[in-house]
Sequence to fold (263 residues):
Amino acid sequence: MRLTYIGHATLLIEIGGRRFITDPNYEPKLGRFLPRVSAPGVALEALPKLDAILLTHAHADHLSFTTLDRLPQDIPLFAPPAVARWIGKRYRHVVAIAPGASATVAGVRLSAALATHRGHRYGFDRWRGDANMYLLDDGVESCFFAGDTALTDGTHDLVKRELWAHERELDVALLPIGWAPRWKYGFRKGHLTSEDALALLERLRARMMIPYHWGTFHHVTSRAFDAIERLRALIPLHSHGSRVHVIEPGESVLVPALAAAAG
Fold:
């Protein structure tokens, strides 16, 4: 399995001989005032042939219409049902996948679970607030992509149901990290802090964690590198810190299959 960090929540996942891109966003800025601070790690025109697109929710930093317009229209675009209904007229290749449902892309199983995150686009459209987490599994290797979510008692249930129940363990956890000032008390209701991401890594029992959602855009109450600086400070102090692999935009990590790693 090979994983490439393109930027923010956009990653290229190569598993089972197939390629998936997550929440593709190549925008130069978010809205009018939040600039991109690092170029996409892989230029859009340099992307390899894709097999599917994974969309977790409708927030502007995860759902970029201008980016989707430039991506292939002949591969499935998986999205939560409410989001799929909204964008379906524009993107005929959208496929609704509800929490608890699964689909197969050329031998790779894609399973969805509900994220704890209000994912609606605008202040008035709470009906399209669905947000998914995804698990990719080719029968040998597995990769969990959290989208945006808070840490809850059930955040690991997808892995428990799809892997642990079959006496398998998770290979890679792709987890978002965020930072907010103390007065932003509601942040953790829908996001992971660096501390939360490490706690979730432990719960997921993943062989490796790769953090994302950093180093790409400035936000209103935090800068692009605040969260990763916090995580880097925590890694040496955490019992599972050696499992965290920080890759810069444009960098890839090759994760050997467990049997190969053991050999």
